[in-house]
Write a structure and sequence with these properties.
mainly alpha
């Protein structure tokens, strides 16, 4: 592999890892925010619990994505070193690589679904008049 190609692969992996970290942090921070709001509010909704669950599951996709990314890189490395059957290792790496995309997209999707549900819940709570 050329040095320039290797450089771009390494830099691409850095950006991918930072993106996974960001997804994990966003979902984790959102979970804490909803938990804090629920604990400090007289008016709350069951939708906030659902939103918190979505954020929590979104946060779980972060470590799963890391693990899948590690396995992907391990398989790519094995494919580069294994001269007897590199095609099989490369195919497995590609399948796991695609699962990383799915895991990251799921984390982002869960974050946006949680934001939507939390927003609806907060809208409803703000329209409730205290007695």
């Amino acid at each position: 592999m050329e040095e320039e190609t290797r450089f771009h692969w390494v830099e691409g992996m850095k950006y991918a890892l930072e993106g996974i970290k960001t997804s994990f942090l966003l979902n984790g921070a959102a979970t804490v925010s909803v938990l804090t709001f629920t604990g400090n509010s007289e008016n709350s909704s069951n939708l906030l619990v659902i939103a918190m669950g979505l954020f929590a599951f979104g946060a779980v996709t972060g470590p799963i994505s890391y693990w899948l990314a590690y396995i992907t890189q391990l398989k790519y490395g094995n494919a580069a070193m294994d001269v007897s059957n590199p095609v099989n290792d490369w195919a497995q790496a590609t399948q796991i690589h695609n699962r990383v995309y799915i895991s990251v997209a799921l984390g982002i999707g869960l974050f946006f679904a949680g934001v939507l549900i939390a927003g609806i819940s907060l809208w409803e709570c703000s329209s409730i008049t205290p007695n």
